[in-house]
Structures are given as C-alpha cells and as structure tokens.
Design goal:
Distance between the termini: 25 Å
Strand order of the largest sheet: 1-2-10-7-12-5-4-3
InterPro entries: DIOX_N, IPNS-like_FE2OG_OXY, IPNS-like_sf
Number of strands: 16
Low-confidence stretches: 1-32, 34-52, 318-325
CATH class: Mainly Beta
CATH superfamily: B-lactam Antibiotic, Isopenicillin N Synthase, Chain
Order of helices and strands: HEHHEHHEEHEEEEEEHEEEEEEH
Oligomer: single chain
CATH architecture: Sandwich
GO molecular function, one term: metal ion binding
Number of helices: 8
Keywords: Iron, Metal-binding
Shape: globular
Pfam family, one: DIOX_N
Helix content: 25-40%
Length: about 375
C-alpha cells in the first residue's frame, strides 16, 4: 500500500551553500544529539510509517455481575468503553477457566496433526470454515469452526472446544443485548428477529512485539477471547494500533464493524481479531481462540436505528396526524447505507483491508 510521503522542511536558505558531504563534514554531534535528532525524525513520520511500538492502554475492566446487582452501572460502563475505545474486559463471567484450558489442549492437538490430515479433516468446503495454511509466514495456520465445531473425521473429538464455543456464544448474545440498551439501538438478535451464527477462530500466535499487519479478517458483531495466561495483544482500533494486557481468566471483548453500523456510528470498533504477541525469546506455544458472533452470509447490514416517536397533541391517532402530533425533528439520521454482508465479507477476507477502513465506502456523506 502506498503511503503519503511527508516532506522534511528545507533548513537551508535559497542562497546558502549546499551542505558538506559526509567525508568533509566533521562529526560535531554527540551520540546524545544524534539520538535526539533521530527521535525527532521518527515523530515527524506519518502514523502509518511510524517505527515505534503501539501505545499501551489500560483495558477497561467491567464486572459482569453488575448485570444482576446494578444494571445501570453496567450500562454506563459498557457505553463509555465501547463508544470511546471499542474494547473492554469482563470479569465475574460464567465461563469456567478449566473449560477454556481443556479447549486449548484440544486445539494444540489439531495443530500437531500432519498437514495432509488437517486438510482432510478440516476441508474448506463452506468458506470461511476449515483449515487455512496461509502463504504468509507471519500469519501461519488457523482453523475456523462453526458453532458445533464439526469435523470431517470421526477420530477427532472436539467436545471441550464445542462446549467452550457454546458458552462463549451465550455470553456474547447477552453482551450484545446489554450494548444495545446502553448505547441505544435496536438489537437485531433480540427474540431472534435476525439470525446469527458463531465462528470459533483458532490460530497459533507468533513471537515478536510488532503487530501482524496481515491476516484473515472476517466481519463480526463482537469477538470474545478468554485469557488463559498473561498475554499482550495488539489491536487495530479506529484510532490506530494499541497494545493491551487483559487479566488472567477475564474475557476480552472487541466491538466489530457490524456493531458499529448497527449503532449508527455510536460504537467504536476493532478491525479484525486481536493479535497475540510475545517476546522474541519466548519459545512457548500460544493458541488464540476467538469467538466471533456474526451473521449468515445472506444477511443485509444496515443501521438498527430505533423508530421515531410522535410527540404532541392530546388526541394522537395511529398516524400521528390531525391531532397536533409531529414527528420529532431531531430524529436520528443514518450514517451508513445498507449493504450485502456476503459481498463485504468476501472483499475484506481476501483483500485484507486493514490500513484503510473497509466501511468508508458505505458511509453516507
């Protein structure tokens, strides 16, 4: 992708002599001065060319127990973290830590299978489900399962991963309902008005502190990841790359592009799945299990704006007419046009549009 080049200011006047060549110029800069000059140069680069590591942010902490003891507090916390950042972590949730660890052990087993057995047991018959051995060495292998974690082999048992997927799916539906109430949009999943599907995306992490700038990107409403151990993640939020470190046994929640459209832009989003990173000398294997709550391919995505309310008049009829009733002039205006989920998912999955926001083409200007 081409980046815009930022011109450095001309520090020499029009009549000034050209700067001396390195061979004739005495080394008048100390090592400290040189480091300061290099630092200033890096800060003047465009954000996409910056060589610095992603800024580390404090991940908002929300106790899911507030849903029963103090639902108003839960709504306030969800609203602030999702509308300002697009991600948070949940504690006191119903997912057992032992279940997550059992699911990880099963995942490690399938990564250890011979490549031909992976392709045979997990064929890509119904995109994007199946085994994906990406050509990019920085991305590596991954498996995408449906909600039942079905396989093409009777010899492989993924019972723990299946149970873990269903538990995460149930929690995800509750979070979407809480978000819709907190931010103020009509939850299409409520009472199953809109069908949903869940994908369990299992991938093996890579060593290194830099974010992986490529990889499979599939649209989702929200994504959930259980934190089995201390682990740092890089997220590509609307504001750019950030680094977070969730608490052990918490569930990290990232808001996706579908939720941003549904909320009519009220929610911030994370592009793609969070990227796990580790130290260069860390030889331990790292499995990431991401539950994506998403839509069937034949769906249409559009803002889920709450209906307008007729106000005024003492004898309002069904149409809100001839009674002094007027439609609220402050009714919300749609910021996104409707579009096909299948077309959008196919494009971002294969083109991997991470630097440029793939939703830009659907924004109403």
């Amino acid at each position: 992708m081409a980046h815009e080049q930022q011109k450095l200011p001309n520090s020499y006047g029009a009549t000034a002599a050209p700067p001396p060549t390195p061979s004739t110029q005495p080394n008048s800069l100390s090592s400290s001065d040189a480091a300061d000059a290099l630092s200033r140069l890096f800060h003047r680069l465009p954000p996409t060319l910056s060589l610095s590591l992603p800024p580390r942010l404090s991940l908002p902490l929300i106790s899911f127990s507030f849903s029963e003891s103090n639902p108003n507090l839960l709504a306030d916390l969800l609203s602030s973290s999702s509308s300002q950042l697009g991600f948070f972590q949940l504690t006191n949730h119903p997912i057992p830590s032992q279940l997550a660890r059992s699911a990880e052990l099963e995942s490690l087993h399938i990564f250890d299978l011979p490549r031909d057995q992976k392709q045979q047991s997990f064929p890509i018959r119904n995109w994007p489900l199946g085994f994906d051995d990406d050509d990019d060495d920085e991305v590596g292998e991954s498996f995408c399962f449906d909600g039942s974690c079905s396989t093409g082999s009777t010899e492989l048992s993924l019972s723990s991963l299946r149970e873990f997927t269903r538990a995460m799916e149930k929690l995800g539906l509750e979070i979407v309902e809480s978000l819709s109430c907190a931010v103020g949009f009509d939850n299409p999943f409520r009472e199953r008005a809109t069908p949903f599907c869940s994908l369990m995306w299992v991938s093996e992490g890579h060593a290194g502190n830099k974010p992986v700038l490529s990889g499979r990107f599939y649209p989702y409403v929200i994504a959930l990841q259980f934190q089995i151990r201390c682990q740092k993640y890089s997220l590509l939020a609307d504001s750019g790359w950030v680094s977070v470190s969730p608490l052990v046994d918490s569930v990290m929640v990232t808001v996706g592009d579908i939720a941003q459209v549904w909320s009519n832009g009220k929610l911030k989003k994370v592009r793609g799945r969070p990227v796990a990173s580790s130290k260069e000398d860390d030889k331990s294997r790292n499995i990431t299990m991401s539950l994506l709550l998403t839509l069937p391919t034949d769906s249409t995505i559009s803002p889920a704006i709450l209906p307008m309310v007729a106000t005024g008049g003492d004898n309002d009829d069904d149409e809100g007419q001839n009674s002094g009733g007027d439609i609220d002039s402050k009714a919300e205006k749609k910021l996104f046009c409707s579009f096909s989920f299948e077309d959008y998912a196919w494009r971002v999955y294969h083109q991997r549009l991470l630097f440029k926001d793939p939703l830009n083409r659907y924004r109403i200007k």
